[in-house]
Amino acid sequence: MSDKTEVKASKHESYLALTIVAFFIPIIGLIVGIVYIAKDKRLDKKLGEHLIAISILFMILQTIFWYLTWGRSTTLTTYSPPVVSSVVDTPVVSSWDPNTYYQQIQNGQTKAQVEKLINKTSDSCTTSETPGVGTMELCDYGSPLTDKGSLMITYIDGRVYSKTKTTY
């Protein structure tokens, strides 16, 4: 069975602090705007009107933001895979050794010839098309878990261009 932990976004530690700050800033703007409107100077009244208008605008934006972000019961789900323990009595070691095949692979051989020679097909090939060069394919043969090494061979237009050997 999988262990799923659901955490509501509103339970996050920063949610309360940000909510309080975001709530009080427009209210303070409203209060200061009302104070400025009550003054006698024309410039102060205009400033008060602008503060009130901006505060109302930010309250509307804040309401929309909080609805879109938190109002839909957003949950964060983490998945913990089950712990599986296994005991391996004998390690799996293949007799496939890249040293045996490295010298036998020559530039110009086809991919089919190489795979027949080394008795392996690649599980990992990357192909790219380059103008002026042709189709380049980078293939990896061998596994670090089961083999004594790996061969990385670059094919251009289906023929060996370069090779690299790694032993473990």
| CA-based shape | elongated
Number of helices: 4
Question: Looking across the biggest beta sheet, what order are the strands in?
Answer: 3-4-5-6
Beta content comes to 25-35%
How many domains is the backbone divided into?
Answer: 2
Biggest sheet descriptor: 4 strands, antiparallel
Note the gap between the termini.
36 Å
Q: What percent of residues adopt helix (DSSP H or I)?
A: 25-40%
Low-confidence stretches: none
The SS-based structural class is: alpha+beta
Counted beta strands: 6
Could you report the average pLDDT, rounded to the nearest whole number?
A: 79
H/E element order: EHHEHHEEEE
What does the radius of gyration come to?
A: 34 Å
Structure, explained:
This protein has 168 residues and is an alpha+beta fold. Helices cover 39% and strands 26% of the residues. It has 4 helices and 6 strands; from the N terminus they run βααβααββββ. The mean pLDDT is 79.
Entry summary:
The protein is an alpha+beta fold and 168 residues long. The protein has helices spanning 13-37, 42-69, 98-102, 111-118; strands spanning 3-8, 75-80, 124-130, 134-141, 149-156, 159-167. The strands form two sheets. Strands 3-4-5-6 form a four-stranded antiparallel β-sheet.
